[in-house]
């Protein structure tokens, strides 16, 4: 991060508090197309898209060196099933049935990868039809299952990735996925986990994206407050069911070609369809620009849980703990883990500022090397944003009702360490 971008980010977030989840509209309705990597710096992306929370599309030039685009694809641009079976035939993968609605998603099952590819090949031979329905391989943690595979490299624009940095550190999970599906497979209307950013790169095939700016989803709720499963369904125009649907702006439509990368801003609801047989790489990620939105989302999720079980507040002694447990089962994180998330992110950056990067860490290409590569000012920006959210978390009434004495270091001590590191770095 250069000084101009640091100054821009500081001015944007100065005294902004904890923001709402984005603006209710996206002026202009145009999604920028980034053509050339050599003329588009990290600071350009940070300033023009991350800070204002705007979408963009990167051309296929940004992925042309990926091994996956060479090895996973045939000469005519189709999935290379022979290669994929040779590399991953013994894997077990998560598969969703796009033809079945289960609440607001599709039911999933675990299938051997070999069986899924055989299904897919038969589906193509039958004119993209099957008695089993349209099956979509989704949310496959391929990077975690096959760390030795050199399929792709994360573009520098998405390298400030707190979400995967944290889950890599605790060795529990990650938010790096592979999607594979036939023509006609799709993902229902949704916003991404924790209201994170996402980036999605097509290894092969084409996708159609329908994106709604953060806040627009409020107009799409039905009389009971539920979001639609499919925003292309005719019922969405029925004001007896969706009374405010006509107030929403039209979605932004993106046709994503092979090799291109779509950047989805934080909190933007979207629906995605595969126009051809398609393979894509997808990451969810959080950083200093949207961590406050993640914190807002967690507060909203806890409030929703509390409303659902409020009748048990008095008879249940540990009601607040039960709310945290339910929240974690639904979202994947609770307030204490969110504190640990902020702690790990902060301590990694404090270490860089205080000790610098040694050659061994740089050679490993680990998270600290990535932090260092973005520069000292980026680490300071990250710490300032973490401190802002940590301060809000520490003052939160529900957080205070937990056993915060079990946290190490104590929140107030971590805040002091954060501020001291920031002050020293800016001397």
Automatic annotation (TrEMBL):
Source superkingdom: Eukaryota
Record-level Gene Ontology MF annotations: 2-oxoglutarate-dependent dioxygenase activity; catalytic activity, acting on a protein; metal ion binding; sequence-specific DNA binding
GO biological process, one term: positive regulation of translational termination
PROSITE patterns, sorted: JMJC
Keyword Iron: yes
UniProt keyword annotation of Oxidoreductase present: yes
Keywords: Iron, Metal-binding, Oxidoreductase
SMART domains, alphabetized: JmjC
Protein name as it appears in the record: 2-oxoglutarate and iron-dependent oxygenase JMJD4
Lineage: Eukaryota, Metazoa, Chordata, Craniata, Vertebrata
């Amino acid at each position: 991060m250069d000084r101009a971008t640091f100054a821009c980010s500081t001015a944007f977030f100065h005294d902004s508090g904890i923001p709402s989840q984005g603006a209710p509209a996206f002026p202009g309705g145009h999604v920028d197309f980034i053509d050339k990597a050599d003329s588009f710096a990290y600071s350009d992306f940070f300033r023009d898209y991350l800070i204002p929370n705007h979408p963009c599309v990167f051309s296929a030039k940004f992925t042309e060196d990926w091994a996956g685009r060479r090895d996973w694809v045939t000469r005519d641009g189709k999935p290379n099933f022979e290669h994929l079976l040779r590399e991953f035939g013994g894997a077990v993968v998560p598969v969703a049935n796009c033809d079945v609605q289960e609440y607001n998603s599709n039911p999933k099952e675990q299938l051997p990868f070999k069986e899924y590819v055989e299904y897919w090949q038969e589906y193509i031979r039958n004119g993209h039809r099957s008695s089993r329905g349209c099956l979509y391989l989704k949310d496959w943690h391929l990077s975690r299952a096959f760390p030795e595979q050199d399929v792709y490299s994360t573009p520098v624009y998405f390298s400030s990735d707190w979400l995967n940095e944290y889950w890599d550190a605790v060795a529990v999970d990650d938010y790096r996925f592979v999607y594979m599906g036939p023509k006609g497979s799709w993902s229902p209307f949704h916003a991404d986990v924790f209201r994170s950013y996402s980036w999605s790169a097509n290894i092969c095939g084409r996708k159609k994206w329908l994106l709604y700016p953060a806040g627009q989803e409020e107009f799409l709720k039905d009389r009971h407050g539920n979001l639609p499963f499919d925003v292309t369904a005719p019922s969405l125009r029925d004001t007896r069911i969706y009374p405010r649907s006509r107030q929403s702006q039209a979605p932004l439509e993106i046709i994503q070609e092979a090799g291109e990368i779509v950047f989805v801003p934080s909190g933007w609801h979207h629906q995605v369809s595969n126009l051809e047989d398609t393979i894509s790489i997808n990451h969810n990620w959080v950083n200093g620009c949207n961590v406050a939105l993640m914190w807002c989302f967690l507060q909203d999720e806890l409030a929703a849980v509390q409303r659902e079980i409020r009748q048990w507040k008095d008879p249940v002694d540990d009601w607040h703990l039960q709310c945290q447990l339910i929240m974690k089962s639904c979202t994947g994180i609770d307030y204490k883990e969110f504190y640990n998330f902020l702690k790990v992110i902060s301590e990694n950056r404090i270490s860089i500022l205080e000790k610098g990067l040694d050659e061994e860490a740089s050679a490993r290409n680990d998270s600290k090397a990535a932090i260092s590569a973005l520069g000292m000012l980026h680490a300071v920006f990250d710490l300032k944003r973490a401190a802002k959210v940590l301060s809000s978390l520490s003052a939160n009434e529900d957080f205070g009702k937990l056993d915060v004495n079990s946290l190490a270091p104590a929140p107030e001590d971590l805040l002091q360490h954060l501020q001291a590191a920031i002050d020293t770095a800016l001397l």
